[in-house]
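Fig. S4 source data, part A: sequence.
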Amino acid sequence: MSKTVRIIPRLDIKGPNLVKGIHLEGLRVLGRPESFARHYYESGADELMYMDVVASLYERNSLKEIISRTAREAFIPLSVGGGIRTLEDIKEVLRAGADKVSLNTGAIRNPIFIKEASRKFGSSTIVVSIEAIRQPDGSYLAYTDNGREYCGIEVLGWAKKVEELGAGEIVLTSIDKEGTGTGFDIGLTRMVSEAVSIPVIACGGAGKPDDIARVILEGKADAVAVASVLHYDFIKNGGAAESAQEEGNTEFLKSNKSFSKIKSAGLREIKGLLRSNELECRV
């Protein structure tokens, strides 16, 4: 029986704003995250993923209010990451309405944290985020703080270890590909997916719906986190006009340069393509 793949909008948050960058840098304001989240929920998203992209820098997670507002309107699993370092941090985020937490810096600094968290809250609640950068010799190393901090940890060995420690899923982000619209790192995704038995969520690089199908078919991903393709589609169709006025300048999104490598698409279009490739997904 074939697996049912999940399409997960990823919403990167800085302060009150939804932001997007390239290689997780050069962040630009897109609007109110709740507006985007509501639209994705109504359009058939399987889950939502919130990431506080400056949480590790300031050693805190400030998403609790956004989580609470979203959880009241979107009745699908909500995953939250950024700045989560203690069991109490997890408890607070779950209490606010999240269903899963994503660990990166806290897990790398203290791997036993994964085991403690999975025992207390259940493996299905604990996701480990791995931010990978390809090295000149072809190997991949894991980084923290949105790809800014070198750790010297090899990705494949780390992926196997987080599974052993009790993580229920892995979010695998290629920093090299993130925000570029040039497609996923298929080799990286396949390498990790074939090495672990827990689900792997591919993240970083989608420029068109075909890229999403390819990382599932060739990269063996169990789910795909998508940002630019969905965000630009929502903005292009006027869905974020109100939030753009309130939250910041989005003029850059109207330029040809901004869209040069991104073919925006909605969730229904993406899932239609997946079904045409005989990939099962929730309608």
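Fig. S4 source data, part B ends here. The longest strand covers residues 4-14.
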